[in-house]
Amino acid sequence: MNIFKKAYCRIFQCAMRLAIPFLPYRKPKILKSVFEIKEILERNNCGRVFIVTTPTVSKHEITQKFILSLPDAVVFDKATPDPDIDAVETALEIYRKNGCDAIVAIGGGSALDLAKACGARVARPEKSVKQLCGLLRVRKKLPLFFAVPTTAGSGSESTLAAVIRDNCTQGKYAINDFSLIPDYAVLDYAFTLGVSARLTAQTGMDALTHAVEAFIGRSTTRETRRYALEAVKLIDTNLKKCYDEPENETARKNMLYASHYAGIAFTKSYVGYVHALAHALGGKYGISHGLANAVLLPKVLISYGKKANKKLAYLARECDIADVSDKDCYAAEKFIGRIRELNESMNIPDGFKEIRAEDIPLLAERAYSESNPLYPVPELWDKKRFEQIFKELMR
Known about the structure:
Low-confidence stretches: none
Number of strands: 9
């Protein structure tokens, strides 16, 4: 990256960091049970709630009980991984047709993102999904919004972002606006009990990526560092337990809060190149976001080199992965080594056979365009550096 582009990126990021205290960030109110929602709906005079979920989650016993508790609810259970623009428009049509005035999203990050995008279209009916993509293009209040995560990963119940896929371009685009932060986050670990080992691993590593990228970036605050560190600690001690013991209630609860804390951290401090690379892979090949993040995280951290060593070393020492006497470079290596060990112990691969050499320039262009100048990464990369990472992922 040439010196002028670097200067522009850093000036932009510095301005965003200085603006953080003055921007209307907020945290959703926490509920511990989905059955608390009914009283809040009544208190707000909401007539008909629109429930967005997945075919699998809609069949869960707890989901069925919740739906029965709201006899006038309209259920849209067609959310799938990597929600696309067509799904948003379909959901919007059903919402309008039934005269709904509140939204409850139950599911993983994809279901929550779909519901957020639908809410954004309700708030701004004159704008298409593409027109809403980008930074602060909604700027109007969404309907009363409840987010009920069923996986401990995306942290979408606490963030201002919704990622939507465009099937025409095979790209992923983010809607980023303060109005997308849910009014309520329902952290009910009962929804996460019994989640498959594969999904537990991928979503847990997604949460770890959020926390680590938020911590090592250049736009951190005392608050975001505190939340990110707490998330890293909880994930380090609980993720493998959830993987090995899917009914471990304490571990599931801890992971759900870890994901939430990581979401709060990266909402303010942003993410980094891991996410840019992962979004490019997800858009082109349909690779799940959590899996892409898990595979990419150690590779990107290594590529940052000494630019990230000090902060990674701090995380390593706080998690008792490294000794206080270890030099930063060795402590950082131990932290990255722990990530690799976690991936290996949960059968996460170290690359992707889907990647084709002829696609790499396009993938690199998309990752570069998404991340610069927005992401306050430890080190700025040009397109060739992105291409090199994609080449290292080929299998």
